[in-house]
Amino acid sequence: xxxxxxxxxxxxxxxxxxxxxxxxxxKSENEGSCCGSSCGCDTVDYSVFADDYSNTKGxxxxxxxxxxxxxxxxFAHISEGDTVVDLGSGAGNDCFVARELVGDSGKVIGLxxxxxxxxxxxxxxxxxxxxxxxxxxxxxxxxxxxxxLADVVVSNCVLNLVLDKSKAFAETYRILxxxxxxxxxxxxxxxxxxxxxxxxxxxxxxxxxxxxxRDEYLDIVRKVGFENLTIQKEKRIDLPNEILKKYxxxxxxxxxxxxxxxxxxxxxxxxxxxxxx
Length: 277
Description:
With 277 residues, this protein is α/β, with parallel strands linked by helices. It contains nine helices and eight strands. Strands 1, 2, 3, 4, 5, 6, 7 and 8 form an eight-stranded mixed beta sheet that branches. Helix 4 links the parallel strand 2 and strand 3. The relative contact order is 0.14.
C-alpha cells in the first residue's frame, strides 16, 4: 500500500468535509469555529488572520466566509484584460474582487476541490450577473487547466492545507504564462515551535494546519522555477497567553514574544520570467 498517497487522500477528504460544512455557514459562524460546534473544534478562530474587505471594490458580502489570511489581490498587480486564476476560491470573494480589476475584457477562474463551495460561488456569480467569472471543481495538485492559461494566480490561505506543496507550485508555474506572476497569501512558521504548541495553535486558528517554515516555503517556490520572490506583507499571529503559558514560564514567554519565532501570515509575490528557446 502507498502510505503517502493514503495520507494525502485522507487529508483531502478531511479538508473537503470540513469546508463542505463551512459552505453552509455564515461569516460570523465560520470565524468562530472551523465547522460548527458539532465537530468539536469550536476553539478555532479564523478572525485572527482576516483582513477587512468591506471597503474593497468588488467585495461581495455573501461571498465572504471570513476564511482568508490577507488580501492577495491587493498586491497582485492585476490589470484590465488579464486572466486571473484563484486557487481555493471558496464562495468567490477574491474572484469578485479580481473581476473588478480585470473588467469586462478579462477573465477570472476560481478553482476549488469542494463541490459545495463551487455551487455556492456559481450562485453568487449568477446573482451578480458576471459572464466572465467561472468556477471549476478540481485539485490544486493536478489542475484541470491548459498550460500558460493565466496572467496572474492568487490564493488566500489555502496552500498550507495542501500536502504536496512542491506539486502545487509546479502546477501554478505550469498554468502561468511566461512573464506571469502570482500573489499568494498563506501561513508559515519561523523558528522552532514546540510540536505541542503548534498542535494547540492549530486548534486555536485553523489556518495554521499544514503550515511549514518560511524558509522551506520560499525554497519550494524557488526550486519550481519562480524568480523575483518578494514578501509583500507579513503579520505575526499572536497566540493567546493561556496557550503559550502551557509551554513557557514568564521569562521564556517574554523572550518568545520578542523573538522572530512564531506563526506568520505572509503575502508572497513571485514571477515566471520570460521563457527563451
